[in-house]
Amino acid sequence: xxxxxxxxxxxxxxxxxxxxxxxxxxxxxxxxxxxxxxxxxxxxxxxxxxxxxxxxxxxxxxxxxxxxxxxxxxxxxxxxxxxxxxxxxxxxxxxxxxxxxxxxxxxxxxxxxxxxxxxxxxxxxxxxxxxxxxxxxxxxxxxxxxxxxxxxxxxxxxxxxxxxxxxxxxxxxxxxxxxxxxxxxxxxxxxxxxxxxxxxxxxxxxxxxxxxxxxxxxxxxxxxxxxxxxxxxxxxxxxxxxxxxxxxxxxxxxxxxxxxxxxxxxxxxxxxxxxxxxxxxxxxxxxxxxxxxxxxxxxxxxxxxxxxxxxxxxxxxxxxxxxxxxxxxxxxxxxxxxxxxxxxxxxxxxxxxxxxxxxxxxxxxxxxxxxxxxxxxxxxxxxxxxxxxxxxxxxxxxxxxxxxxxxxxxxxxxxxxxxxxxxxxxxxxxxxxxxxxxxxxxxxxxxxxxxxxxxxxxxxxxxxxxxxxxxxxxxxxxxxxxxxxxxxxxxxx
Length: 493
Prior knowledge:
This protein has 493 residues and is an alpha/beta fold.
C-alpha cells in the first residue's frame, strides 16, 4: 500500500458566517469560539482515515492549505483566528493529542486570505534587511518547487495559531504563491497547485484592461504572454484590498459584504456595472473636460469604451466560474483553465528548470469555484491530457442548494499518484450523496494505487464518514434556510 504523502484542503473560509465549519450558538448564530458539529465529525473521520493510509512508523503526510482557508476579506481577524484554532484542535491532532501531519504545513493563499502572502512578502523583505541588504522590491512570487536553496517565506500568523494548540507546538507554516509544484524523483510527473483565483478572469481584470488599453500599461506586452509574476504584480494589490483586507474594516467591511452579494447575482451585477460605468464617465468628463459621447477611436465613444471595459471585467462576475451554479464548468471556464495551465503555468515550469514541460505527466489542483470535480483536460502545449482536480468549498453563500456545489480533498502518495475524497455536494431533495473516492475518470484510474488505497480506507471508515455526512447536510440546509429568510426580510424592508 502506498503511504500518503500530501493532503490538500481549500476554501474552508474559517471565520465566515457562511462556512459550515464555523460553530453556532444556541440561537443558530455564528460563534467561532465553538467547534461545529461538522468540523468535529470531519476531524473524527479524518483521524480514522489517516490511521489506514499512514503505516506505523511512516513519515506523517504534509498538509497543504490551498487558499481561502481563512476568510480575511469578509470576517474580523479575531473570528478568523478563533475559527482556525478550532480547526487545528479538531482536525490536526489525534485522540492522544499527537499531530496527524508533518511539522511543516504549506499554504498557497487565495483571494480571501491573500493577505497571508502580503505578510510573507514583508517578512522576506525584513529578513533581507536583517542580513544587511535592501532588496529592489518585494518578492514577486516564490520558487515553483520547494527547494532548500530557495526557502519559502514563513507565515507568522498561521505558525503562531498552530503552536497555540496543545500538541502542535512544534508546527510551522510556510507560504508558496501563487503556484506550488510537486515533482517526482524522475522529473516526469508533476502536480501544480494553485488556489484558482487567477484562473478566474475577474481576478485578472487589471491585466485585461492593460491588454485592451495598452496606453495604461507601463510596458506594452502581447496579451498571450502573461507570466505568474505579471499576474500578481498587476492584480495582487486590488485583490488584497477588496478580498482580503476588509474583514476588520467595520462598516466598510459590511459594505464589502453587500457588494459581494451583489456581484453573485446576475441582474444586480449588471445594474451595478452600468451605474459604476456612468459614474466613471462623468468623472473622466469633469476631469478632462470631455463628453462621454466624444468619439475616441473608430467611432467608439468614451461611454461605450468605459461600459465595455467594466462589463468585460467586473460585470461578468456573476457569469464567472465562481458564481455560475448551474454547471460545474462552462465552456468559457474550461477555456480559462486551459489558458492558465498552458500559458502562465507552462512558462513558469520552463523557467524553473523543467526543460520539456510539454512531456510531463501533469496534474493541476485548484479550488476557488466551490464546485469540486475531477477530469482530464487536453491543454495546448502538453502532449497528454492534464489531470485536473478541484477541491470545492465548505460554504453555503447563496440560498439555493445546488448539486454542483460541495467540498473535496486531494491526496497524493510519494510517487504523486493522485486521488480525491469527495466529501459532500449540496443535498438534493433532502438527500446527500455519500463520501466517495474519485480519480480523473479515465483509463489511468485502474492503475492508480492512491485511488485504490483511498477506496479501501474509506470502506473501513464508512461509519465515521456517514456521521460526517449527516452533520454537513444539517449545517448546509440550516444555512440555506437562514439565507432565504434574510433575503425575504431584506425584500420586505
